[in-house]
TrEMBL record:
Renumbered residue ranges of the record's region Disordered: 215-245
Organism: Raphidocelis subcapitata
Alphabetical list of SUPFAM superfamilies matching this protein: FAD/NAD(P)-binding domain
Family: Belongs to the FAD-dependent oxidoreductase family.
Keywords of the record: FAD, Flavoprotein, Oxidoreductase
Record's protein name: FAD/NAD(P)-binding domain-containing protein
Biased composition, class Gly residues, residue ranges: 224-243
GO cellular component annotations of the record: cytoplasm
Chain ranges of the FAD/NAD(P)-binding domain: 16-312
InterPro entries given in the database record: FAD/NAD-bd_sf, FAD/NAD-binding_dom
């Protein structure tokens, strides 16, 4: 005769995994964990859509891109339970949302990326976000001129897109450093500047946009003169900004009424985690992790993507790679817990062997900066070359479709 079924209390408890942030790292992680089975996965994000953020510079000149690059969570492959809400605080065992809800967990993964409010958007739904991106395009078309603030990869790409798709629109790039693309080999900056100036762009180095001198009677606006897109905290597309005068700190006059496009450094969106994680959150906001992507001093919490301290470029394909390693490690730890619940202690096998992430996937540092639709800069290690290669390899439409195939149930 068969023995009676074991009482429910002796069954291994399903571990609860909370994935905070449904961007590249978080969406891939939740999908991977859900596919493994045996875990209660919850994915939480402040907005109910996944966005291919690096398509946004193209969407600014070609808004139809957002029909594919903004993806509702309901379109994603199975990813556990989705909760829409902003995580405002964390303890070692639960996350609290802005509306007071609590999300308990056994394992958590902080995948909140960086806070560049406007480029990412905070709309309440897919339709609203697409409207926001279309409004940004309309503001760009209507603006008499454009000032791109920041001469890193995003600023250079933005200027290139506008000069190519809206020829004749005056564009000024204002950069605080001595050369464009200053994190890439020296030649990259010279190549970018050469292309931009050859296409009529004014490039101002070692300078910043100054507070505007408002003409008498002008309505109070933001800190700076023109309307803007990408400015932290603004969150919406800006208009042309009227006729307020803009200038730089070194006294250069900027085109009146120019639309400001903010392409300046983003900070990791990890403030909510700092009290719980203490010294594991650095002054730069990055969460310190080991090669296994476990947070220093908090082995049941992981940090991935742009939010973590792995020394490598902050790129989408690397965030996606982190998700694979974290999924494997969380599943292994949860399986060991379940074995211990069953009284076997994992068969005496001890702590599970965890996978390690190789910074940059062990490849030489590679950066592709597209400038316009058929030219760009390819930087590998200390070498940079200009030409068609970057734009061929980094096809925005191609990346959007590749991402959809990876995350969507019906791409
Ligand atoms: C304008 C721009 C251009 C870029 N260009 C490129 C490029 O050309 N190539 C490339 O590979 N990479 C590019 N990147 C970088 C790439 O997009 C990031 O490396 C990638 O998105 C990082 O993924 P992530 O999952 O860490 O963060 P994200 O994809 O940013 O996702 C973070 C998620 O967390 C959510 N979130 C944040 N805080 C909270 C909270 N408190 N509560 C709930 N949810 C929260 C956000 O809503 C978001 O959905 C670009 C980024 C930007 C902003």
């Amino acid at each position: 005769m068969l023995p009676p079924p074991a009482p429910p209390s002796s069954l291994p408890r399903r571990r609860r995994v909370l994935v905070i942030g449904a961007g590249f790292a978080g969406a891939h992680l939740a999908i991977d964990l859900a596919a493994r089975g045996g875990l209660d996965v919850t994915l939480v994000d402040r907005k109910p859509y996944f966005e291919v953020v690096f398509a946004n510079a193209r969407a600014l000149v070609e808004p139809a891109v957002c029909e594919r690059s903004v993806i509702g969570v309901e379109e994603l492959k199975p990813h556990g339970t989705f909760v829409c809400g902003e995580v405002v605080s964390l303890t070692d065992r639960e996350a609290a949302l802005a509306d007071g809800r609590k999300l308990p967990f056994d394992y958590a993964a902080v995948c909140t990326g960086s806070a560049q409010a406007l480029w990412k958007g905070d709309a309440r739904g897919v339709g609203e976000r697409r409207e926001e991106l279309r409004a940004q395009h309309a503001a760009l078309r209507a603006a008499p001129a454009v000032v791109v603030v920041g001469g890193g990869p995003l600023g250079v790409e933005l200027a290139g897109e506008i000069l190519t798709d809206l020829p004749g629109k005056p564009v000024v790039v204002v950069h605080s450093g001595p050369r464009l693309l200053q994190d890439l080999p020296c030649r990259a900056g010279a190549l970018a500047r050469g292309w931009l100036e050859a296409h009529g762009c004014k490039v101002l180095l070692n300078d910043r946009v100054a507070a505007a001198a408002e003409p008498p009677g002008a309505a109070k606006g933001g800190e700076h003169g023109g309307g803007g897109i990408g400015q932290d905290g603004d969150g919406k597309s800006g208009g042309g900004g009227g006729a307020r005068a803009l200038r730089t700190e070194r006294g250069e006059e900027l085109p009146a009424g120019a639309l400001l496009l903010w392409a300046v450094g983003a900070r990791p969106a990890t403030g909510f985690a700092a009290p719980a994680l203490g010294g594991a959150v650095g002054e730069d906001g990055l969460i310190k992790v080991s090669g296994t992507l476990q947070v220093e001093g908090h082995p049941h919490i992981f940090a991935l993507g742009d939010a973590c301290s792995i020394p490598e470029s902050k790129l989408a394909f690397l965030a996606t790679g982190h998700a694979g390693v974290a999924a494997r490690n969380i599943a292994a730890l949860a399986a060991a817990d379940a074995a211990a619940d069953g009284g076997g202690g994992g068969g005496g096998a001890g702590a599970p062997q965890l996978a390690e992430w190789r910074p940059g996937m062990g490849l030489p540092r590679l950066m592709l900066v597209t400038v316009g639709r058929s030219w760009g800069i390819t930087a590998i290690g200390s070498v940079a070359v200009g030409g068609w290669l970057a734009s061929r390899v980094k096809s925005i439409a191609g990346f959007v479709e590749k991402t959809r195939r990876a995350v969507c149930a019906a791409p």
